[in-house]
TrEMBL record, chain A:
<keyword id="KW-0812">Transmembrane</keyword>
<keyword id="KW-0472">Membrane</keyword>
<protein>
    <submittedName>
        <fullName>ABC transporter permease</fullName>
    </submittedName>
</protein>
<dbReference type="Pfam" id="PF12730">
    <property type="entry name" value="ABC2_membrane_4"/>
</dbReference>
<feature type="transmembrane region" description="Helical">
    <location>
        <begin position="16"/>
        <end position="38"/>
    </location>
</feature>
<feature type="transmembrane region" description="Helical">
    <location>
        <begin position="202"/>
        <end position="223"/>
    </location>
</feature>
<feature type="transmembrane region" description="Helical">
    <location>
        <begin position="106"/>
        <end position="139"/>
    </location>
</feature>
<feature type="transmembrane region" description="Helical">
    <location>
        <begin position="252"/>
        <end position="271"/>
    </location>
</feature>
<feature type="transmembrane region" description="Helical">
    <location>
        <begin position="58"/>
        <end position="85"/>
    </location>
</feature>
From TrEMBL, chain B:
<protein>
    <recommendedName>
        <fullName>MucB/RseB N-terminal domain-containing protein</fullName>
    </recommendedName>
</protein>
<feature type="transmembrane region" description="Helical">
    <location>
        <begin position="282"/>
        <end position="304"/>
    </location>
</feature>
<keyword id="KW-1133">Transmembrane helix</keyword>
<keyword id="KW-0472">Membrane</keyword>
<keyword id="KW-0812">Transmembrane</keyword>
C-alpha cells in the first residue's frame, strides 16, 4: 500500500511542479540580493538573510526561513487535502477500498506519502539553495584549509565546522518534517470529512492562518504554546551555540500531539465513512 | 429497542470516544501541571532578602523572559532601551561567578551576546557580524537586557529600596522550582511603583521571578522570570567569547553605548539639585548623565546634544503631553503609569528625564531644567 502511494506521488508531475516552485522562491530572492547587495536589516526580513551576503553557505538556512512560513505549508495542505477527498471526488476511492487493505493502512500510507513529499521538497530546496548561495554570494574559507565546504558563523558567533553544519541541517530537515506533520494531519482529517480537496486544503490553511495571527497577539498569550504554528521557526535554534533545544522539543511535542489527535479523528471518521460515489 | 442504531454506528461511537479520551488526557496535562499544589515552606522576607543578596555566587544557567507593557515609542539612540520595557525579551543566561557570565538576547534569526570575563566584557551581534571588546569599567551606562534577568533586577531593586517594607507572599512554582515569595512596598509617594513581587529559590536564594506593579494597576506591567533554570556551573567553553577571526568584524572600545557617545559630545552640565533632590552619582568625567532622588523614586537625567536632542524632543512631543515651563522653554512628558519620560527643550539643549516617578515630581523637574543656564 505504501509503495503504491509513493509510486503515485512520484509519478505525478504536480509533485515536481510544487517542488520547483518551492525552489524558485529562494532563487528569486537570491538574485535580487546578489544584484542589489541590499540585505534586510538584522532582525527584519527572513532569518539569516542579512548574513548570507558575507557567506553563501548559510543560504540553505535562509531558504528554509523563506519557504517555511507560507509556501511549504500551503503545498502540504493542498496535497494532504487531496489525499482522500481527491480520490472520493474522482470516484477512485471505492476502488481503492475494494482491495483487501484496511482503511487504517490506507490512511497511514497517505501520511507516509506526505512525509516523503516534504522530505523531497526540503532536500530539493536545500540543494538548490546551497548551490545558489555558493554561486551568487561566495563562501568564507574553511579553517580546515579546504575550499569546500566552508566554515559558517553560528548565530552565537562561533564557527560551525562543515560536519557540524551538515548535522544541523539534518536536524533542520527532521524538525521541518515534524512541523509539517501537524499541517498534514489537519488537512488529512478534513479530507476524510469532505469530498472537496479544495475545501479540505482551505480548511487547513484557515487553521494555520488563524494560528499565525494568534501567535503574534499578546492577548492570546495563554494559548500561544499550544498553537500549531507557534514553534515553526524553532529550527533556527539549531544554529545557536550551544543548540537551544527548548523550543525545538516543544515544537516537536506539540506537532506530535496534533498528529495523534487529528490522525485519530481521521481514523475514527474514515473507518465508518460511507463511500457512496 | 433502538432500531436506528447499527453495529457500524456503535463502532464509530467507540472510535470517537477513544479520540475524545485522548484529547481530554492531553488537554489535562498542562492544567494539572499548573494547578498542582506548591509545597514550598514559607521563608521570612528579611531572611529571603539576605539570601537573595548572597546569591551572587550561585552558579546557574537558564532561559529567561521579560515582558513589559509600557508602550514607550522608539527614541533616537535609545531604541534598544525602550524596547526592553515595551516588549518581550527572550534571554539565555549562563552564570558562573560575578566576573564570569554570559547573557544572549534571542530573536528570530538574530542574537546579541554579552560576555563578562575577568579581563573584559565582549559583545557579539550576529546581525552586524560584529564582535566588540569593552575594556575598563563603565561607571555610567544605559540599561541592557542583562539587567533584566530576575537575579539582576531583584538585586538591583532590593539594593535601591533598602528601607522599604517587605511582606511574605504565597509560594509559587517558577521554572519547576517551588519558590518562596515576598512583596516590597515603597514607602515614598514620589514613585509610581505600587509594589515589587519577588520569588526566589529558598535554598540558593536565587531570584526566579520579579513582577512590578504600578500604582492603581490591577496586574503587573513588567514581569521577568525564568522559564528554565538549572543550578550548577556552566561549561567553561560556553563562557568563552567568540575569537576574533577573518570574516567577522572586531573592535575594541572603552565604553561603546550611546550614553558614552553623548558624554564625548561635551553636553551642558547638569544642575547639582533638581526638585530639591541632590544629584547623587557624580562620576569624574561623566557630565552627560546624572541620577537624582533615592530608592525606587530615583530618576535619570540625560543631556542630549543639539541634533539628536531635537529628534528625541519631537518624538516625545508627538506621543506625549505638553508640560508648561517658564522662560519660553518647552517640555513634554510621556506617562506610561510606571516609567515616565520627560523631555525639556532649553534653548538649543535637550534634557531627557526617565524614572519610576510620578508626574508631579516630573513637573517640578521640568521647571528646574527649564531654568538651567550656562
Amino acid at each position: 500500500m505504501i509503495g503504491v502511494e509513493l509510486a503515485k506521488l512520484f509519478r505525478r508531475p504536480r509533485t515536481y511542479v510544487i517542488a520547483a516552485l518551492l525552489c524558485a522562491l529562494p532563487l528569486t530572492v537570491a538574485i535580487f540580493l546578489a544584484t542589489t547587495r541590499i540585505p534586510p536589516p538584522p532582525g527584519q526580513g527572513g532569518a539569516f538573510l542579512s548574513a548570507v551576503l558575507s557567506n553563501g553557505a548559510l543560504y540553505p538556512a535562509a531558504a528554509m526561513a523563506l519557504v517555511l512560513p507560507v509556501f511549504l505549508p500551503v503545498s502540504v495542505a493542498v496535497l494532504a487535502g487531496d489525499a482522500v477527498a481527491g480520490e472520493a471526488s474522482a470516484g477512485t476511492l471505492r476502488y481503492l477500498l475494494i482491495r483487501p487493505v484496511s482503511r487504517s493502512r490506507l490512511l497511514v500510507a497517505k501520511l507516509i506519502s506526505l512525509v516523503a513529499f516534504v522530505l523531497f521538497a526540503i532536500v530539493s530546496v536545500l540543494v538548490t539553495s546551497y548551490l545558489t548561495g555558493i554561486l551568487l554570494f561566495g563562501v568564507s574559507t574553511s579553517s580546515a584549509g579546504v575550499a569546500l565546504p566552508p566554515d559558517v558563523t553560528s548565530l552565537s558567533g562561533v564557527t560551525i565546522s562543515p560536519a557540524g553544519l551538515a548535522l544541523r541541517l539534518l536536524g533542520t530537515v527532521a524538525y521541518i518534517v515534524i512541523s509539517m506533520l501537524g499541517v498534514a494531519a489537519i488537512a488529512l482529517f478534513l479530507s476524510t470529512v469532505t469530498d472537496s480537496s479544495l475545501g479540505a486544503a482551505m480548511g487547513a490553511l484557515a487553521v494555520l492562518v488563524t494560528s499565525q495571527v494568534l501567535v503574534t497577539l499578546d492577548a492570546a498569550a495563554a494559548i500561544r504554546p499550544y498553537l500549531p504554528t507557534r514553534y515553526w521557526l524553532a529550527w533556527v535554534d539549531f544554529f545557536r551555540d550551544p543548540v537551544l533545544w527548548r523550543d525545538i522539543e516543544r515544537g516537536a511535542g506539540i506537532q506530535l500531539v496534533y498528529l495523534a489527535v487529528l490522525l485519530g479523528a481521521a481514523w475514527a471518521n474514515f473507518l465508518t465513512k460511507d463511500v457512496a460515489n | 429497542m433502538d432500531i436506528g442504531r447499527t453495529v457500524v454506528t456503535a463502532q464509530g461511537l467507540r472510535r470517537w470516544a477513544v479520540v475524545l479520551g485522548l484529547v481530554l488526557v492531553l488537554a489535562a496535562v498542562p492544567v494539572v501541571v499548573n494547578v498542582w499544589p506548591v509545597r514550598a515552606a514559607g521563608v521570612d522576607p528579611a531572611d529571603l532578602r539576605s539570601r537573595i543578596a548572597a546569591s551572587g555566587i550561585q552558579a546557574h544557567q537558564g532561559y529567561a523572559q521579560s515582558a513589559g507593557l509600557l508602550g514607550l515609542p522608539a527614541l533616537p539612540n535609545l531604541t534598544q532601551v525602550t524596547a526592553l520595557v515595551s516588549g518581550t525579551t527572550e534571554m539565555r543566561t549562563w552564570y558562573a561567578a560575578p566576573d564570569r557570565w554570559r547573557v544572549d538576547v534571542l530573536g528570530e534569526g538574530t542574537e546579541h551576546g554579552l560576555y563578562q570575563t575577568p579581563e573584559a566584557q565582549f559583545t557579539w551581534d550576529f546581525g552586524d557580524n560584529q564582535l566588540t571588546r569593552i575594556e575598563g569599567a563603565q561607571p555610567v551606562r544605559l540599561p541592557r537586557a542583562a539587567d533584566l534577568t530576575p537575579p539582576a533586577l531583584a538585586r538591583q531593586v532590593l539594593s535601591a529600596a533598602a528601607g522599604d517594607s517587605l511582606t511574605p507572599l504565597d509560594a509559587k512554582r517558577v521554572a519547576g522550582v517551588e519558590a518562596a515569595g515576598m512583596r516590597l512596598t515603597p514607602a515614598g509617594t514620589d514613585t509610581t511603583v505600587a509594589h515589587v513581587d519577588i520569588w526566589a529559590d529558598p535554598e540558593h536564594g536565587l531570584p526566579l521571578q520579579v513582577e512590578v506593579t504600578a500604582r492603581g494597576g490591577a496586574r503587573p506591567v513588567f514581569v521577568t522570570r525564568f522559564l528554565e533554570i538549572r543550578f550548577g556551573a556552566p561549561d567553561a567553553g560556553v563562557l568563552t567569547p567568540p575569537a576574533p577571526r577573518p570574516g567577522i568584524g572586531y573592535s575594541v572600545a572603552e565604553a561603546p553605548d550611546a550614553l558614552s557617545a553623548l558624554n564625548r559630545g561635551q553636553p551642558a552640565p547638569l544642575p547639582a539639585t533638581l526638585a530639591g533632590l541632590p544629584r547623587r552619582d557624580a562620576v569624574a568625567g561623566v557630565s552627560a548623565a546624572g541620577v537624582y532622588g533615592a530608592g525606587l523614586a530615583s530618576f535619570v537625567v540625560l543631556a542630549l546634544p543639539g541634533r539628536s536632542g531635537g529628534r528625541a524632543f519631537r518624538q516625545i512631543t508627538t506621543y506625549g503631553l505638553e508640560v508648561p515651563v517658564p522662560d519660553g522653554n518647552e517640555a513634554a512628558v510621556i506617562e506610561t503609569g510606571l516609567l515616565n519620560v520627560l523631555a525639556v527643550r532649553n534653548r538649543n539643549r535637550t534634557f531627557l528625564v526617565a524614572g519610576l516617578v510620578g508626574p508631579d515630581l516630573l513637573r517640578r523637574v521640568a521647571t528646574g531644567l527649564a531654568g538651567v543656564t550656562g
